[in-house]
Amino acid sequence: MSLIDGDGASKSEEDRFALAEKVILRWDLSSEGSRRSLNWGDSGDESGEYFSAIDETLNLMDELSVRSDSEIVDRAYSAIQHAMSRLEDEFRQVLIGNTVPLDTERLYGSIRRCSLSFPVNGA
């Protein structure tokens, strides 16, 4: 039995969602195969496909939320939750990967030079 049999959603909407859901869940953080990062820097095919799947799911959620089939809407919300979790982790990795370590000695020297260049009140 189909998830949506005569409850208002067309087969093409169901198929579109199933494809988008498959792409999103392929990168689910809990699955063993998705431990690697999305390919952000090179061609962008993987990340583009991922973002397209998210967009497709969001668009379909708007269309499907007015219908009575709550199972497919629940699956769509779940897929979006997985995507948000994955994107949060990816963003964290980008931030960590581009963090420059703080050179405390250099910072101290800069602060000291600045404080010496300002006259002290009453002097």
From TrEMBL:
InterPro entries, alphabetized: Cullin_repeat-like_dom_sf, Exo70
Pfam families, sorted: Exo70_N
Any Gene Ontology biological process: exocytosis
GO cellular component, one term: exocyst
Protein name: Uncharacterized protein
Organismal lineage: Eukaryota, Viridiplantae, Streptophyta, Embryophyta, Tracheophyta
